[in-house]
Amino acid sequence: MNSFFNQRKKRFRFQSHLLESYKDNNLSIRMVNSFPDYLGAMRLLYNEYSTKGLIEKNDSHLYFSPYLLLPRNILFNAVIDNKIIGTIALIEDSPIGLPIENVHFDDIKLQRMSKKARLAEIGSFAVDSKFKNKGITILLYKAMFLYLQDYKKIDSVLISVHPRSYNFYLSMFQFKQIGKERKYDSLNGARSIPLVMNVRETVNILNNNKLFDTNANILEVKDSLKKNINKENINNAKEKDIFYLPIWKESHIKKYFQHCGVNDKSLTSKQKEIIYWLYPSLKFSINKENNNVI
Questions:
Q1: Burial code of 135-150, b = ≥16 C-beta within 10 A, e = fewer?
Q2: Residue 172, SS3?
Q3: pLDDT in tens, 133-190
Q4: At 177, is the secondary structure helix, strand, or coil?
């Protein structure tokens, strides 16, 4: 009983802190819809991940993820005074799968088989270390849940977390563990626990608890979503329509690959197949200039 009330007190303090976070500052949560903002998010991910020893340092100072190049996947940035201080991604299931499957393949396979739900993964998350414990994480999740609630037909959201963050995700967002802890080889052996969340149930609980009460930050998030998403087209889309229309220019992707030093060994055959389909001239133009890069 005591633990229950202690948890409620923690939530109350957390919510109070959240509502005051950056109340008087020029903070905004933006949906990424320009390539400079995308690269800014990749730089933040690189800086935070490399500092923590999760990835090796490189000359480009950019994080590379083939999943984030697919059109249905989305990034949100937290920005203050034109500086990106936080980022988070929603990665929908696709022909190349989900990043979490690189570590927890069997667990995700069971999720697909047992529930036949439309899946997505929350990942590529980072907050500038100078802005930790300032409520940025929750503001980014506010944007994510508003997006899931109003614009996406996602049934279940997956995430892989370090054990030290385990209780936070279970208590705050109603995630449930679906597999054993494993090592994330692509993140230098970081410890990883796979979790899943039912979107409808979690959104209802968050709304009922008023954890995500409307404030100036979220009004701006809603406005950003309305400007960037045609809700009618999404609602009228056929289930088999995967909306695969490229969102970045091929010249942008080409530079991104070159800066990151991506080569054939960096991608699976399925990833190359989908990326070449989206950006058909990419393979030939980069091969011409760099025999090692795709």
A1: bbbbbbbbbbbbbbbe
A2: helix
A3: 888 888 898 888 888 877 778 889 999 999 998 998 988 888 999 999 999 887 878 8
A4: strand
Rg for the chain (alpha carbons), in Å?
Answer: 19
SS3 sequence of 206-222: HHHCCCCCCCHHHHHHH
Whether the per-residue pLDDT at 257 is higher than 80: the answer is: yes
Q: Compute the C-alpha angle 181/186/192, nearest 5°.
A: 15
Mapped onto helix, strand or coil, the DSSP state of residue 294 is coil
Give the DSSP H or E segment for 232.
helix 231-236
CB 156 within 8 A of CB 115: yes
Crossing angle for the helix pair 199-208 and 136-151, nearest 10 degrees?
A: 120
Tell me the C-alpha distance between 199 and 173, whole Å: 10
CA distance linking residue 213 with residue 132, whole number of Å: 21
Q: How many angstroms from the chain centroid is the CA of residue 142?
A: 13
DSSP three-state, residue 228: helix
Reading the block at residue 166, the tokens are 């385990």
**End-to-end Cα spacing for the chain:** 58
Tell me if 139 sits within 8 A of 102, measured CB to CB. Answer: no
The beta strands (E) that lie in the chain are given as: 27-31, 74-80, 83-92, 119-127, 156-161, 176-177, 182-184, 190-198
Q: Using CA atoms of 252, 157, 225, 211 in order, give the dihedral in degrees to the nearest 10.
A: -140
Which backbone phi and psi does 159 adopt, to 5 degrees? -160, 145
CA distance 266 to 223: 38
Strands 119-127 and 176-177: what pairing?
unpaired
> Read out DSSP for 22-50?
TTTS-EEEEE--SHHHHHHHHHHHHHHHH
